[in-house]
Design goal:
The chain has 161 residues and is α+β, with helices and mostly antiparallel strands. It starts with a strand and ends with a helix. The chain is built from three helices and five strands, in the order ββαβββαα. β1 and β2 form a beta hairpin. α2 packs antiparallel against α3. The protein has a five-stranded antiparallel beta sheet with strand order 2-1-5-4-3, sandwiched between helices.
Length: 161
């Protein structure tokens, strides 16, 4: 399984942590392709900044979560969605932290994995850290080397093997 990226959003819609491993694939059509994978005559698409990418991911999960709750009721939860190129996995904690992982389409549901990251890494290294802020104003984010190392090791050992 390939993991493309991982995000954590706080209850104020701020991205407090983001990590990218490999870029998401771009669509490929049946038309003639240039060396960069684009159809002949097409210009290179403008790459999103990391901040814009995080805003786009949050907007997607916010919209889909609200749609699921309106269609199915408050008890129903948004878990994941799949496109032709990637699958987005979602886990929301009781304190409204949102954990999002983007993987390839072949992966199974990673809700349990995101819960494990929350319980065993985020709570242990960020919440219990007296030097870590309780709130992350203006997107200051998680700044804990042990958490970052733990996420890297966890993803490499559990998901990419």
């Amino acid at each position: 399984m390939v993991v493309y990226s991982f995000y954590i959003f706080d209850r104020h819609a701020e991205c407090i942590y983001k990590k990218k491993w490999t870029p998401r694939p771009t669509s490929t059509g049946s038309k003639a392709q240039q060396a960069n994978g684009l159809p002949d005559g097409a210009s290179q698409p403008k790459a999103l900044s990391a901040e814009d990418d995080a805003k786009l991911v949050f907007g997607t999960i916010f919209s889909l979560r609200n749609m699921v709750r309106k269609l199915g009721g408050q008890e129903d939860n948004f878990i994941s969605y799949r496109t032709g190129h990637y699958k987005l996995h979602y886990y929301e904690t009781p304190t409204s932290l949102k954990f999002v992982m983007v993987t390839d389409t072949k992966s199974n549901n990673l809700r349990i994995v995101l819960h494990q990251i929350y319980v065993s890494l985020y709570v242990e290294y960020v919440v219990k850290n007296p030097l870590s802020p309780i709130e992350h104003p203006r997107g200051i984010g998680v700044n804990c080397e042990l958490f970052e190392l733990g996420v890297e090791q966890f993803v490499n050992a559990s998901l990419m093997s």
